[in-house]
Specification:
This protein has 436 residues and is mostly helical. It contains 18 helices and 6 strands. Helices cover 50% and strands 7% of the residues. Bound molecules: carboxymethyl coenzyme *A (CMC).
Length: 436
């Protein structure tokens, strides 16, 4: 069990219903303090009301820190820009899971463990074949990741730290294999087995892009770009899918079921589906001369159009991940000789117009990570339907680190929000023949 690192930071008083109450205030190492209202209902008989949890900390965490106003994102204290430039995805996985950057020997054994777990049970292939060929790969991922619990019984006892660790390594290792299988299945090509002498991201690209008739030649610029994209997506503190994983895990559900729940939540267009939506939007705009008109439509709000890849619940400044993403977008397009890509031109113009428009400035809407990720992933050869799958692949480590942290938290209990009920009050049952 982990010790709480929150410190007392005074008290807050609340006047309610003619009485005054004092509540402790807790501080972390950085970021806003929290008013400890755990006894609020006991003492006052009232709930708090906070749909979307805009002012609610659901947990203490020491994994990822975001300062949305300043545009800061850190994993275990290391800035995302530093990690994007100097780390690898697998090293960042270690950092997120274990809290420190690995020594060489720790990294070697972690890499060996992940590499040796990349193959999936052969029966999984039949499971895939039960899906329609035109199934969305996210639908397949929800199914097959949840189904892992049926294949790996020996790592579902969440009370055993060793089993928790094995399940964590299995998930990180097998998610690329499953993601590549989902892709191969959708295009009617044979599944490609993992190859242990390749790096994590190289291996994934090979499983996606090689065919038995032709070997895939890894390109270091493209591999680095995808590896960086994975680093940028690896964790993002208590976002919707991570909170879903924690909530699912709070009931004692097994890790595979929890991660499947996270994948389902990530699928939505306001969350992980935004990269697909952002690319579709750029394609719909089509050419630079249509950008101004599109922005006008977004602003008049009558058609309910949002600028996809813009805005963020937490970042009220440039998303720090978007900068690293933009660097990779240019690197990939240059490497592939696509610097004249019309979608890139539309994106640059759209960003320029939006960043200088009072509507977006006043609402603090800046490009988020998804603005440039779609263009990059498309150039790497992935179809749009795979974009959210790649996000899920990368976020799996974040979900697991947060799930593990939750289970080790002495204050952990089943998540159970309350509500302000506004429905009918008690009334008598009416037999059907008497209903109007
Ligand atoms: N385009 C136009 N207007 C917007 C946008 C946008 N993308 N985002 C927010 N607004 C407006 C919104 O209409 C509202 O205006 P008003 O105050 O006049 O009613 C105001 O800004 C606040 O919007 P909100 O919906 O209350 O803000 P939120 O914090 O609940 O929403 C968001 C955050 C990400 C869901 C939203 O900005 C959005 O829908 N963005 C587009 C989708 C997107 O790019 N999502 C990816 C997020 S990053 C990846 C991840 O971490 O999952």
């Amino acid at each position: 069990m982990r010790e709480s690192k929150m410190k007392p930071a005074g008290t807050a008083s609340l006047k309610y219903d003619g009485k005054e109450y004092e509540f402790p205030v807790l501080s972390g190492t950085q970021g806003p303090n929290g008013l400890d209202i755990r006894k609020l209902y006991d003492q006052t008989g009232a709930f708090t009301y906070d749909p979307g949890f805009t002012s609610t900390s659901s947990t203490e965490s020491n994994i990822t820190f975001i300062d949305g106003d300043k545009g800061v994102l850190q994993y275990r204290g290391y800035t995302i820009a530093d990690l994007a430039e100097h780390s690898t995805f697998l090293e960042s996985c270690y950092l997120l899971l274990y809290g420190e950057l690995p020594t060489k020997s720790h990294m070697d054994s972690f890499t060996t463990s992940i590499t040796r777990h990349t193959m999936v049970h052969d029966q999984m292939a039949s499971f895939f074949r039960g899906f329609r060929r035109d199934a969305h790969p996210m639908a397949i991922m929800c199914g097959v990741v949840g189904a892992m619990a049926a294949f790996y019984h020996d790592s579902t006892d969440i009370t055993d730290p060793k089993q928790r660790e094995i399940a964590s390594h299995r998930l990180i290792a097998k998610i690329p294999t499953l993601a590549a299988m989902a892709y191969k299945y959708s295009i009617g090509q044979p599944f490609v087995y993992p190859k242990n002498d390749l790096g994590y991201t190289e291996n994934f690209m090979r499983m996606c892009f090689s065919v038995p008739a032709e070997e895939y030649k890894p390109n270091p610029v493209l591999t680095k770009a995808l590896d960086t994209i994975f680093i940028l997506h690896a964790d993002h503190e208590q976002n919707a899918s991570t909170s879903t994983v924690r909530l699912a895990g709070s009931s004692g559900a097994n890790p595979f079921a929890c991660i499947a729940a996270g994948i389902a939540c990530l699928w939505g267009p306001a969350h992980g589906g935004a990269n697909e939506a952002a690319l579709k939007m750029l394609e719909e705009i089509g050419t630079v001369d249509k950008v101004a008109d599109y922005v006008k439509k977004v602003k008049d709000k009558t058609q309910g159009i949002r600028l996809m890849g813009f805005g963020h619940r937490v970042y009220k400044n440039y998303d720090p991940r978007a900068k690293a993403m933009q660097i990779q977008a240019h690197a990939v397009l240059d490497e592939l000789g696509l610097h004249d890509d019309p979608l890139l031109k539309v994106a640059i113009e759209l960003e320029k117009i939006a960043l200088s428009d009072p509507y977006f400035i006043e609402k603090k809407l800046y490009p988020n990570i998804d603005f440039y990720s779609g263009i990059t992933l498309k150039a790497l050869g992935f179809p749009t339907s795979m974009f959210t799958v790649l996000f899920a692949l990368a976020r799996t480590v974040g979900w697991i680190a947060q799930w593990k942290e939750m289970l080790e938290d002495p204050h952990q209990k089943i998540g159970r929000p309350r509500q302000i009920y506004t429905g009918a009050t008690e009334r008598a049952y009416i037999p059907q023949d008497k209903r109007k």
